[in-house]
Amino acid sequence: MLTDDHAVMAGDSKFISPVEATTGALVGPLGGVSDAMARDIKRRHGFEEATAPLYSDVVRRLVFVVRDIDDAKDIAQETYLRAFEAWDRFDGADARAWIYTIAIRLALNHVRRRRRWLAVIARHEDRSTASLDPIDLDLWLALKALDQRTRAALLLSAVDGYTHGEIGLMFGVAEGTVSSWLSRGRAAIRAALSAR
Questions:
Q1: What one-character-per-residue DSSP string does 93-124 give?
Q2: Which residues contact 194 (CB under 8 A, 6 or more apart)?
Q3: pLDDT higher than threshold 60 for residue 149
Q4: What percent of the chain has pLDDT over 90?
Q5: Is the pLDDT of residue 18 over 50?
Q6: For domain 1-131, is the CATH number 1.10.10.10?
Q7: Are the CB atoms for 95 and 50 separated by under 8 Å?
């Protein structure tokens, strides 16, 4: 029996669009739609068309960064909220890169806050492998050993096909820095997997 968490990992997450969530609220008292409401509906449809297909991929990537599927889902929701609020400022170039940039930055901030909180309360729970199949355990443990930025950059490069320059723009660092992260990350994963 697959749980909801397995569905997310398999890419079956359900994206509740802003249009679905609020369509009933946009109909006027007499059943008509005003010009302002029509513009809002059009804006929401544009956002949904550009970003909804990316949702399950965003959640899967976030699981690797924050190491917890529930936190990943929360961060994905926050990502979509922030992206929708900024939709009017989006240049339209690459919605996937834009969404991933927001998600990765929120995830890294979350990890920093969580680390500070754990230091304050002086305890640490290792929940990192709870939602993975045993087959992926060796790879997961190798990825877990990497620092968050290297792990995120490696996933963006290897899984999503972003170039070093694009990843550099997402993180706000030079392309050479990304190349260094990726080189060290790949070497560390090769060493960890060959040792098992």
A1: S-HHHHHHHHHHHHHHHHHHHHHHHHHHHT--
A2: none
A3: yes
A4: 27
A5: no
A6: no
A7: yes
For residue 185, what are its two tokens?
């990350």
Task: Please give the Cα distance from 62 to 54 (Å, whole number).
Answer: 12
What one-character DSSP code corresponds to residue 14? P
Query: What's the pTM?
Result: 0.53
Domain ranges of the chain: 1-131, 133-196
pLDDT attached to residue 40: 80
Q: 133-196 belongs to which CATH class?
A: mainly alpha
Residue 35 vs residues 41, 160, 161: alpha-carbon distances, Å: 10, 39, 41
pLDDT of residue 62: 92
Q: How far apart, in whole angstroms, are the C-alpha atoms of residue 110 and residue 27?
A: 38
Specify the residue for token string 């804006």.
43
One-letter amino acid of 57: D
Domains 1-131 and 133-196 share a fold: no
Q: What pLDDT, on a 0 to 100 scale, did the predictor assign at position 125? A: 43
Q: Of the candidates 143, 134, 62, 2, which has an alpha carbon nearest to the alpha carbon of residue 70? A: 62
Token digits of residue 106: 């929120």
Alpha helices in the chain (DSSP H): 4-9, 18-26, 35-51, 55-66, 69-85, 95-121, 137-144, 148-158, 164-171, 175-195
